[in-house]
């Protein structure tokens, strides 16, 4: 059963219909909401002429396309969010790579400093041993 009512042009209209070939007596379980707020006004499906099967078919197709458009926009939004997450991970990985490179350079510098200090220590130990020997010789000769 189709009911009609006059609605002011500035008021939003919500229409639902079923794509099934069910009788008018059954409740519309799979009805498609025909309000598409994400669409520009000029892209909104126009109400069909209920006397024309072709108009109804075009209207249904337009609604299906609007639904697909909505799904694609949701997918784009999800992909853009994923892109942001991946960019953040990449930035973090690059920062960690830079940090790791700095740590490697610091390790190499400290390793070189350690080697230099060990060499200086061994030279000091040798020099101290020579001084002890000289001191003992002086003590023994006096």
TrEMBL record:
> Coiled-coil intervals in this record?
69-120
- The answer to whether UniProt assigns keyword Cell inner membrane to this entry is no
Q: Which InterPro entries match?
A: Map3k7cl (IPR042800)
Report the superkingdom from the record.
Eukaryota
Sorted keywords for this record are:
Coiled coil
What cellular-component terms does GO give this entry? cytosol; nucleus
Q: What is this protein called?
A: MAP3K7 C-terminal like
């Amino acid at each position: 059963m189709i009911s009609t009512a006059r609605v002011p042009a500035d008021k939003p209209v919500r229409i639902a219909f079923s794509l099934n070939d069910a009788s008018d007596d059954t409740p519309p379980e799979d009805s498609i909401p025909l309000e598409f707020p994400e669409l520009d006004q000029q892209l909104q499906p126009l109400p069909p002429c209920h006397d024309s099967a072709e108009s109804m078919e075009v209207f249904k197709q337009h609604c299906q396309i609007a639904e697909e458009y909505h799904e694609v926009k949701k997918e784009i939004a999800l992909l853009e969010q994923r892109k942001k997450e991946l960019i953040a991970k990449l930035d973090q990985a690059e920062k960690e790579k830079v940090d790791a490179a700095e740590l490697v350079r610091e390790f190499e510098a400290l390793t070189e400093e350690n080697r230099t200090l060990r060499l200086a220590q061994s030279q000091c130990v040798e020099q101290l041993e020579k001084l002890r020997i000289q001191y003992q010789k002086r003590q023994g000769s006096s």
